[in-house]
F-box domain-containing protein (Urochloa decumbens), 491 residues
Amino acid sequence: MKTFYKAGIISLRSLAIHPRNLFSLIFRVLPKLLRHSTGLLLKKFGEDGCVHSASVGTSLGRMPELPQDILMDIFATLEIPDLVRVGSVCSAWRSAYNTLRDNGQYKRSQTPCLLYTSESAGENVACLYSLVEKRTYKLTLPEPPIRSRFLIGSSHGWLVTVDDRSEMHLVNPITGEQITLPSVITIEHVNPIIDKSGVVQKYELSYHTARQMLYRPSDPEHVKPIFDKFEVVRKYEPTERKVYYEPSVFAVDDLREHLHCKAFVFPETSKGSYIVALIHDPLKQLSFARVGDGKWTWLPPYTDYEDCSYKNGLLYAITIMGEIHAFDLSGSVIMVKMILGMTENVMADSIYMVHAPWGDLLNVWRIVDDEDANFDSIDHVLSTNEIKINKVDTTAKRLEEFKCMHDHVLFLGHNQSLCLSTKDHPHLRANHAYFTDDYDLYIHGYKNSRRDLGVFNLKNNISEELVSPQPWSNWPTPMWITLSLAKMTTE
């Protein structure tokens, strides 16, 4: 073992003389450093799959004194698990890692990991299955325990969670950073029921939407923009509440079963902040908040949203019938633009909207098979049997069937929908979709059922298991996450 490390160090030092050999040799040496480091390296990501404290000490002796800029160039090509590990090799490497992270210079596109929990791993532990390494890492997350929370989304390295008082938090599983979102009682449809001491005991959930009306309401927030043929807002049409049922009262830990559907986190670069979009009941309406806001802002009058995305300052949202709206949240008055009207003959159990790397907006339909499912059983199974892809023609306002993803892949589920290139992510399978469960009634109502999770061949409509046997628990439902080292500023 000692001989190996000595030889490795000598070779690394020679790279200062022959920099063109740096990349090929460092990648030949690094895997060995990481793999054969028992008792020598103190790493954040351990070879046992567990997370250890990121101490900097090492028994390797004097490490090669490569220039920091060269180390940073190398480290910038690594995926985050490897990056964190090499950052714990020695003080010089740790310094290069910290500089790369803190200066925002680390831009490498990450291959998504599957995030899940396991009863045997512990209540506070999240597991990450790496598609690159085909192995699992374990990360200890801050309180409250991750297995006691609902997971309602992941975007840009952040999980959106709901605790046992139905309050929402953002969690970065890599950095451990946790951000509290505005209270659930600031959502339009939620009212707190408070005891004499001022403590929230229960929640009242109202079942109303907004509808168009002929007179201006007293609340100026409830207005619908009217567009001309050039899709420019010319006037506003007031709206009013449309009540479907009498309000219901829920315990503080029960509201999340009936309110939270799916959430997304999007960087808002123009403001140096983050936007959190929340699809919630009744009738899957849309609200949003910026990190640091004191309340959620309702976006009426539309309902039945299934998925969201964000691009060029616009929040896009798609309904189960394929209708796409784009909200401009940058000004004091929220503008909304109709991108695509209701689509005829939508035959989908789930619908997604993806901005492809080449510029197209994709509309993706997912159809599940429930013919063999026993809905009276606690362990019935749904399975994905078809995924259809359409390109949105925003000029003609229609859908065009998209036959093949070629060298791209999709990631679908209870997370931000993604389209990635296999040129940037060579470990992924081209023209395939990686999917997890996201059918609300199923994942909430049948928590002990096996999850509909796998890799779907878009050419022949054949689904394969991601790994067998499946190591993950069925609740909270597993989801895809693209890891990030970015810290969130709330100023």
